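Tip: read the tokens left to right.
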């Protein structure tokens, strides 16, 4: 009742939520008091049993076996309190993830959680009621919430903070608030509401103006003097978080995902301070901002930006820390659009923008990793690959390539940000963008309550706009901030180390799928070549109406929403947030623009993220794919059409220029999307794409279609669904669904003798589960050799299959479940292509077993069999060489060839499923049945048989990466074993005086040496083999063929992945080193990009592809 008198006559939705919250809090507090009294024996004098069962009628209403069928015990009672059978026995909580314990939530904590959830809702972008605007609706929400929070009866609950005196809170102990050693104490000193405001500011990217307005409202409406100074507490607490996150980003070695989240929080906090500057809460600008050396205390907003700019320039010029310089530059540039109306233009241009442009982001200093064909994370090749198409098609592709070159797709997001801010600063104060978040001011509608009573009979005095009445606050870094003073002193403090890190997760590549943004001087011309532009108003609005600024801010908002609303799973297995929630937040971005076509920008940004996704970052392929799927379901009238057009443009204009990793990510998303939308895709697309598959020449579009179908099949239990539900009737694509193409010659089948032996081995393994040693003795024995003589395998020893026949028989027998599964799926596809009543009655039973588990378990179990056959075949080959008077192949080389042959048999049997193949290869290498060198022999087409033309395994770099990863792990394990088992079994006492830090560095150096010693031969062979194959594939053109693209980009991927893997392993674990130390160890190794480039330079460099490869490696 008291709250109703304090609130407006018509309560808003948010006020009603808060009323419910307060009632629940009051009930929780009362319940807590009752339980406390009962625990102490106070209060009620009733028998504890009578508290629950007052009469027989109530008792009869209970379930006879306990509440809701749970059984007896505590569940028998409705309110789950202790029952008449005595104390409840302790038991594990009902948590399938094994949580340690269940806890009751403190009423105050529960109330604050609800308040935090309420704060997250107050500024949500929603379609307003008729007759009002979004800003007016948010302003009303702020006003209602502030009046409830600041009511004199509620303020003690919501506005209390550490200081209890009635003096102005500006004298609050800043050392306590900013102390990193006592975050809980700092939160209490600032107050729970200030903590919640800063938390929501940091994580809700589209609501920053709302929280600036709420800060103003609470500061002005809170009871004085006991709760004054709320804005000051928010600023101090916010700067504490800003200092902590900046130190974490620059001085701590954090992962790519954490790097993205930390940078996002910094950008939002800086934006919040800027908006507080518009309200005069924070000092915006003063003439002294340019005087003296930049410092970390008593700063205006302009002074803070100037200090960050100076730190960025020093990082680039004096400290040679370009990633740090780029990170600080992005912080400043991201904030400049929000200070256009408040900070003098000359100051922005001359003191902020120009120094960053000249010293940090110029073309000589900043080398983007997304540079086409050169950058280590590039999305695009330097030029389109040679598709082998007809002359007419080549001519069209050349025109599309010229259009793509002019589209500016080579820019990454940092370069786009610089261009956007330049254009904004040069716009003479006129915003050439429709992005309303830059100018949103929901505080304009806030009114200050009148303190004077109107004379009797007269109307109430008009309310005045709410304004800040205190002195503007200056910004100061917390006292324990280390990074900024360290940079400003140019690394003077030797006890502090600036960490090395990549810009991945902060800077992204961008792909203008729907064309380049229009320039200011572009004429409004019709583009007849663009698909459906004249018929699609939304697409035309995006292409013509969204300039460079609009597209950058839109893509940035999409990334922010995806990052900050990402769903997660708690330790108890509960999902916090869903992909549908993220999709709803994404769609609210459309309310920040006053024109059509926003959905095309959202799709463009999301597909760009999907194509550059990896397993280290926050924007993983599956997560973004799920959100895009939910967004399509959320807006079925606009999203499917826009998505179809995006896919069409990518396939038509970009696929030949995309790097293989980007194409694979695109295929993964497309297969996931089709499988989860009941294959709703226009049949005309499939009919058009089938031409690229059936023309007999390998090309990027055909590879995309085949890869997509393969991924879709791997996600289905019944692959024939693709034929019946996905592909159009009469399509030629079903013939390509399985491993072999229709015109590919089937391998020669063994004769009856070898088939009988293979069948016998299969029975021994899969039906009799014979002992591995016994089966090995049978396979390597002379009896089997006599049996095979004269057969296909025993005729001569010139072919690999005849030299390694025991190995082939053993591995083929082990692959029996996969062989059956493959045959079953092929039959199912054939039935779906040519349905017949007779065939339909003979459908084979589906195999319910997990083929992958069966294969890997038996590969491990029958490891002695495989090793025995390899050694026996190698010995036979040596004997044959002696008889024929030929030179013997060294034993290690002989075994490597045999192991590569074994891997080739795995490929032949499992190529229908990339999941089975990759996992079985991993199993074989981990169990030392095949070496990493053998993996490269096989993957790069060097199998010891010179009669065969070299053939690359599809996505060979993934398989090479598996081998390298296992080698790294084994190298580290060997170091651990040496440390645990000293020579001679002696225990060495190193003494207490040994420097632990030095020991840690010494161990890391030994780890690095062990890794390099193990993988250096592998990397050298891989590099030389790639160069050899590039010469063999060279056709004298200045374009790379598909095979050459696979070689160049595959080697780049392996080098980058190896570096990432080694640094991650060195910086994690008990004996980890800092990221700077790990990078130093890497730079001194012999497998860096420049070292690999030197190996390539020692080869014949006349080949255009090798020149391209060397340039790419040198840029790493």
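Filled-in amino acids:
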């Amino acid at each position: 009742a008291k709250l109703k008198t304090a609130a407006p006559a018509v309560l808003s939705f948010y006020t009603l939520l808060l009323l419910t919250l307060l009632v629940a809090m009051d009930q929780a507090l009362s319940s807590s008091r009752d339980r406390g009294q009962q625990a102490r024996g106070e209060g009620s004098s009733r028998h504890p049993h009578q508290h629950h069962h007052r009469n027989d009628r109530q008792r009869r209403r209970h379930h006879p076996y306990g509440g809701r069928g749970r059984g007896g015990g505590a569940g028998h009672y409705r309110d789950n309190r202790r029952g008449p059978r005595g104390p409840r026995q302790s038991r594990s909580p009902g948590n399938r993830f094994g949580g340690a314990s269940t806890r009751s939530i403190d009423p105050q904590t529960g109330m604050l959680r609800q308040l935090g959830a309420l704060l997250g809702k107050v500024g949500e972008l929603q379609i307003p009621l008729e007759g009002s605007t979004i800003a007016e609706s948010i302003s009303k929400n702020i006003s209602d919430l502030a009046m409830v929070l600041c009511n004199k009866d509620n303020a003690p609950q919501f506005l209390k903070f550490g200081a209890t005196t009635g003096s102005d809170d500006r004298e609050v102990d800043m050392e306590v608030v900013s102390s990193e050693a006592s975050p809980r104490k700092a939160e209490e000193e600032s107050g729970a509401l200030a903590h919640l405001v800063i938390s929501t500011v940091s994580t809700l990217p589209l609501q920053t103006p709302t929280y600036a307005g709420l800060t103003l409202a609470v500061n002005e409406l809170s009871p004085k003097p006991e709760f004054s100074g709320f804005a000051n507490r928010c600023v101090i607490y916010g700067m504490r978080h800003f200092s902590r996150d900046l130190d974490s980003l620059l001085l701590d070695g954090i992962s790519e995902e954490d790097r993205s989240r930390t940078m996002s929080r910094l950008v939002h906090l800086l934006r919040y301070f800027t908006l507080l500057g518009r309200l005069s809460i924070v000092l915006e600008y003063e003439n002294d901002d340019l005087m003296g050396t930049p410092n970390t205390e008593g700063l205006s907003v302009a002074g803070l930006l100037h200090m960050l700019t100076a730190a960025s320039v020093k990082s680039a010029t004096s400290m040679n820390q370009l990633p740090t310089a780029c990170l600080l530059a992005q912080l400043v540039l991201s904030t400049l659009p929000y200070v256009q109306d408040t900070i003098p233009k000359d100051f922005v241009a001359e003191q902020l923008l120009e120094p960053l442009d000249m010293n940090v982001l110029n073309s000589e200093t900043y080398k983007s990793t997304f540079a086409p064909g050169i950058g280590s994370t590039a999305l695009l090749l330097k030029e389109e690959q040679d598709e082998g198409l007809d002359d007419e098609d080549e001519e069209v592709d050349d025109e599309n390539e010229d259009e793509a070159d002019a589209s500016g797709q080579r820019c990454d997001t940092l370069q786009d940000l610089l261009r956007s801010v330049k254009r904004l600063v040069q716009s003479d104060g006129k915003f050439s963008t429709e992005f309303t978040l830059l100018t949103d001011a929901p505080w304009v509608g806030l009114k200050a309550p009148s303190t004077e009573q109107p004379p009797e009979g007269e109307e109430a005095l008009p309310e005045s706009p709410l304004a800040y009445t205190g002195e503007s606050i200056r910004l100061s870094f917390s006292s324990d901030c280390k990074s900024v003073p360290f940079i400003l002193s140019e690394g003077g403090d030797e006890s502090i180390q600036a960490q090395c890190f990549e810009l991945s997760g902060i800077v992204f590549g961008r792909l203008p799928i729907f064309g380049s943004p229009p320039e200011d001087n572009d004429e409004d011309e019709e583009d007849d070549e663009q698909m459906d532009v004249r018929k699609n108003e939304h697409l035309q609005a995006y292409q013509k109406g969204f300039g460079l600024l609009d597209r950058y801010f839109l893509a940035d908002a999409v990334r922010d929403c995806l990052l900050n609303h990402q769903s997660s799973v708690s330790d108890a297995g509960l999902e916090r947030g869903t992909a549908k929630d993220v999709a709803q937040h994404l769609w609210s971005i459309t309310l920040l623009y006053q024109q059509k076509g926003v959905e095309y920008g959202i799709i463009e940004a999301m597909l760009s993220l999907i194509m550059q996704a990896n397993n280290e970052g926050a924007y993983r392929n599956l997560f973004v794919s799920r959100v895009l799927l939910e967004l399509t379901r959320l807006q079925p009238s606009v999203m499917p059409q826009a998505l179809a057009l995006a896919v069409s443009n990518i396939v038509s204009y970009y696929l030949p220029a995309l790097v293989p990793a980007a194409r694979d990510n695109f295929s993964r998303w497309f297969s996931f999307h089709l499988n989860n939308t009941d294959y709703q895709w226009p049949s005309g697309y499939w009919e058009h794409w089938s031409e690229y598959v059936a023309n007999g020449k390998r090309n990027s579009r055909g590879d995309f279609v085949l890869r997509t179908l393969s991924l879709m099949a791997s996600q289905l239990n019944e692959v024939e669904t693709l034929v019946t539900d996905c592909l159009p009737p009469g399509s030629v694509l079903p013939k390509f669904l399985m491993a072999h193409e229709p015109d590919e010659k089937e391998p020669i089948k063994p004769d009856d003798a070898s088939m009988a032996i293979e069948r016998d081995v299969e029975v021994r393994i899969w039906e009799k589960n014979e002992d591995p040693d016994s089966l090995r003795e049978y396979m390597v024995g002379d009896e089997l050799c006599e049996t095979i003589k004269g057969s296909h395998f025993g005729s001569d020893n010139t072919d690999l299959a005849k030299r390694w026949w025991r190995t082939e028989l053993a591995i083929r027998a082990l692959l029996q479940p996969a062989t059956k599964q493959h045959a079953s799926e092929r039959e199912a596809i054939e039935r779906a292509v040519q349905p017949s009543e007779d065939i339909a009655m003979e459908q084979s039973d589906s195999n319910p077993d997990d083929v992958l588990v069966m294969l890997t378990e038996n590969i491990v179990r029958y490891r002695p069999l495989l090793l025995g056959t390899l050694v026996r075949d190698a010995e036979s080959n040596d004997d044959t060489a002696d008889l024929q008077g030929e030179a013997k192949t060294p034993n290690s080389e002989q075994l490597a060839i045999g192991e590569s042959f074994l891997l080739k048999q795995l490929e032949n049997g499992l190529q229908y499923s990339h999941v089975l193949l990759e996992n079985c290869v991993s199993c074989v290498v981990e169990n030392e049945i095949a070496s990493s060198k053998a993996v490269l022999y096989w993957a790069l087409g060097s199998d010891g048989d010179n009669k065969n033309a070299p053939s690359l395994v599809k996505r060979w770099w993934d398989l090479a990466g598996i081998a390298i990863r296992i080698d790294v792990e084994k190298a580290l394990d060997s170091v651990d074993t040496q440390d645990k088992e000293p020579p001679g079994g002696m225990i060495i006492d190193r003494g207490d005086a040994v420097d632990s830090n030095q020991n840690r560095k010494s161990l890391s150096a030994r780890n690095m040496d062990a890794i390099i010693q193990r993988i250096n031969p592998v990397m050298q062979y891989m590099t030389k083999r790639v160069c050899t194959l590039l010469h063999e594939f060279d056709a004298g053109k200045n374009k790379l063929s598909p095979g050459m693209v696979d070689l160049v980009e595959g080697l780049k991927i392996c080098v980058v992945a190896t570096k990432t893997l080694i640094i991650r392993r060195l910086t994690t674990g008990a004996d980890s080193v800092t990221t700077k130390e790990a990078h130093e160890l890497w730079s001194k190794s012999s497998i860096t990009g420049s070292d690999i480039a030197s190996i390539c330079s020692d080869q014949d460099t006349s080949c255009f592809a090798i020149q391209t490869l060397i340039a790419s490696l040198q840029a790493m």
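The chain has a mean pLDDT of 80. DSSP finds 46 helices and four strands in the chain.
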